[in-house]
Fold this sequence. Notes:
The chain has 403 residues and is mainly α.
Amino acid sequence: MPDDERLVTGYGGRLLLAVSVGWMFIQAGRLVVSPLLPEISTTYGLTPTQEGFAVTTIWGVYALLQYPSGRLSDRLTRTTLLVAGLVAVVVGFLLLAVAPSYPAFLFGAVVVGVGAGLYPTPARGLVSDLFVERRGQAFGLHTASGDLGGIAAAGLSVAALAVAGYAAGLPDALAALARLGWRTAFLPVVLVLAGVALSLHVWSREGYRLASVDLEVAATARRLLGRPGLRRLVVAYALYAFVWQSATGLLPTFLRRAKSFSPGVAAAGFATLFVVGAVVKPLAGGLGDRVARDRLAPAVLALAAVALGWVVVAESPTAVTLGVVVFAAGLMAYPPVMQAYLMDTFPDDSMAGDLGGMRSVYIGLGALGPTVVGAVGGFAGYGVGFAGLAACLLVAGALVLTS
């Protein structure tokens, strides 16, 4: 392949690696909140609704930045937005690690949301700039890095809690660090993301640019909402995002409280989502290069809906884990297929801005998921909330079919 179409070598391969590692650890830092949520809740004395709102804050602020970050990266440079996002997210995770109260934790969540919001749309724009013939595969690999972040999040949560339990037997300096408990999970994330920011600064040929940019909100809204098919895709993706953010935000809590699983088993179920996703996403991206993407997407959503229904009614850890595996296969196959389809649809000179506008809408609506499901969980039980998520997937698949 030409140098700029190589997935793991050459200039394009190096940048794909860098932005993917960055995305992996941004996801790890955000997703580690999920398996640690019961411990965070104990530290601050939270209600189920407050637990969900903490997750919603991270994702809601992140959603607000999707459109402006994409538009800015179309008019400035991808590197400008990527490095700025990494710097902000490093600061945000440090704030989460030292937050003395729930309001302070929420402030750190806002800063994380800002930094994370600046990053993924320019990253996907950069991937589209570098890869054309192998765009589906590149998107599969890049989005799979987020699933590796989920696996890392599960490992970080288990390690942080395990080390805290052995604090008394460690040397004084390590014991003081271990006594921070769940907070130590954010420290490796900070170190890696700082390294990624430095790598992009050194490797990128784009450089930096600062200028006033017209966001053209009205023109973008007309492109996205002026076509009935795109309107249905926005609603479908919003329902998908609602499910994804609820599942990744509250699955460990659901397994511990509704199924009475241990923290270790709940973390393993959470990690299973992303282990399967890391395998499925590149395969789905490659398959989407060969078959009709607008038919593949609803099929995987239907698979995810049936599997989630099984997770709700199953009782044994083995049966639940099997259901989570199939649910993950359907859920995680959707993004690379649909994002490549959307990139094919958007004009070249505004693709990142258009994708960012759509992401702002569907992630913003989806960010309400953890709060809604948390409130339902506190009132009627988490099983009822997760059963509703299965229905959302079926509706989303029907909307894609009619787009």
